[in-house]
């Protein structure tokens, strides 16, 4: 059974540029580093792991193009502002802000980061409900 997001890994040809871009966007430096191979950030309410990996270590057959069917979505408090900030930092729109469902409050968007990875963001009232039950803010 899936119990929650643990780590998401993105690949980049230019590891240092990707580290710098994500550090700028996230407002934190990576807490872990393997020289020329990997950077890891801890982010969000549950300190989820975001790894940036040198594309040389990508699984055999991994595609360099965005996509592949799945998009991990991160809850954000201000979807329009976060989406715009990503675009301002050089990401490109993959999916515009799109309302989901008919009960209000759910919306998603996604960008392609400058390194070819899809970064999904969303406004998710259920996430906030769960966070409130766990004592988070």
Task: Summarize the structure in words.
This protein has 137 residues and is of the alpha/beta class. It has two domains: 1-57, 2,3-Dihydroxybiphenyl 1,2-Dioxygenase, domain 1 (Roll); 70-137, 2,3-Dihydroxybiphenyl 1,2-Dioxygenase, domain 1. 23% of the residues lie in helices and 33% in strands. It has three helices and eight strands; from the N terminus they run βαββββαβββα. The strands form two sheets. It has a four-stranded mixed beta sheet with strand order 1-4-3-2, with helices on one face. The protein has a four-stranded mixed beta sheet with strand order 5-8-7-6, with helices on one face. The longest helix is centred in the N-terminal third of the chain and has 12 residues, at 15-26. The chain is globular, with a radius of gyration of 15 Å.
Descriptive key words:
137 residues, 4-stranded mixed beta sheet, 3 helices, 8 strands
Number of domains: 2
**Shape estimate:** globular
Low-confidence stretches: none
CATH architecture of the largest domain: Roll
- Helix coverage percent: 10-25%
- The share of residues in extended strands comes to 25-35%
Overall pLDDT, averaged?
87
Q: What name does the CATH topology of the largest domain carry? A: 2,3-Dihydroxybiphenyl 1,2-Dioxygenase, domain 1
Biggest sheet character: 4 strands, mixed
Give the distance, in angstroms, between the N- and C-terminal Cα atoms.
26 Å
Count of extended strands: 8
Q: How does the helix and strand content classify structurally?
A: alpha/beta
């Amino acid at each position: 059974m899936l119990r929650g997001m643990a780590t998401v890994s993105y690949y980049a040809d230019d590891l240092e540029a990707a580290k710098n871009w994500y550090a700028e966007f996230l407002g934190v430096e990576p807490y872990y580093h393997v020289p020329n191979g990997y950077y890891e950030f801890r982010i969000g309410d549950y300190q989820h792991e975001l790894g940036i990996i040198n594309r040389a270590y990508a699984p055999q057959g991994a595609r360099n193009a965005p996509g592949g069917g799945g998009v991990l979505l991160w809850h954000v408090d201000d979807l329009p502002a976060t989406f715009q900030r990503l675009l301002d930092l050089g990401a490109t729109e993959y999916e515009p802000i799109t309302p989901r469902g008919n009960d209000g409050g759910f919306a998603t968007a996604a960008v392609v980061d400058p390194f070819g990875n899809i970064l999904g963001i969303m406004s998710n009232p259920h996430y906030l409900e769960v966070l409130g039950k766990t004592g988070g803010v």
